[in-house]
Amino acid sequence: MNPDTPKPVPAEGQALIKIHSFGLNRMDLMQREGRYQVPPQAGKILGVEFSGSIEGFGDGDHEGFEIGDEVFGLAYGGAYAEYLASSTKMLIRKPKEMSWTTAAGIPETWITATQALHLVGCFKPGDNVLWHAGASSVSIAGIQLAKAAGAKAIFVTAGSDAKVDFCISIGANAGFNYHTEDWVTGILRATNGYGVDVIVDFIGKNYSQGNFEAAAIDGRIVQLASLSGGKLDAGLDIGLLENKRLRWEGSRLRSRPLEYQQKLRELLVEFALPKFADGTFKVMIEKEFSWKDIQRAHELMESNQSKGKIICHVD
Predict the structure, then answer these.
(1) Which one of 5, 54, 191, 297 has the fewest beta carbons within 10 angstroms of its own beta carbon?
(2) Domains of the chain
(3) pTM recorded for the entire structure
(4) Mean pLDDT in order along the chain per 10 residues (315 residues)
């Protein structure tokens, strides 16, 4: 919104996108506060997911896109803007029946959930899955992805009974309010002591021991964030890692190379895009704002009350 900021010039392999809408993500808050390690190609402008139309190209391969195409996609940064230069390798054609709002709410969350479940978590049909922060946008996507892929049971943790009920309404089998319930005990009881095969965690420090206890033999724990802290307390029983043969792997999508992100784009297009078209998959929208009200949008995300995407429109 700074009138002195020049329109970006697309480099080789990039398209110039006129932004219609962009989605908010918790990393935006952390980046704003200086608590997020930003990749060097990101720049200073926030925002990684967007919908818009192509206005031009740099040199090189255009991946079959043309000027005027309506697209949505993922960027290393810079989506809080009127224009964005983005690699064509991370663009997806927007179906005519899909709204700009829905399209802007897909890229970061659904690609992250796909990566966590399939590429890092090595999900297999019949696995039990646990999504922490169940009402977060990534976990909302993940619940739907796991259900469609044949999960035996899907569990969530969340900070209120209303959020737990919401997660169950979109496909989770059971959920646990971490303020009032022992989620480890609940999961082991629900699985007759078996546990969960894939855990996707955003919490970190406060949940690490519980993850070890709730994981099944040969379980996979995918660490996407550490909202409760990254430095673990003394007393963490890593013997469970050995005894259960657990794999605990960290991942951050934004720092991945372009070719890796392109592979995830192609997985999303092949497996998820048709399910958006037929209504199987849904992008849950909490609230829409004008980008001029970005402060209010950030305040809503900071309140931890939302259940779904917060989208801003460039007007």
Answers:
(1) 5
(2) 14-106+254-313 (3.90.180.10), 109-251 (3.40.50.720)
(3) 0.90
(4) 79 97 93 84 90 97 96 95 96 96 95 94 98 95 97 97 96 97 98 98 94 98 91 87 96 87 91 92 96 97 91 97
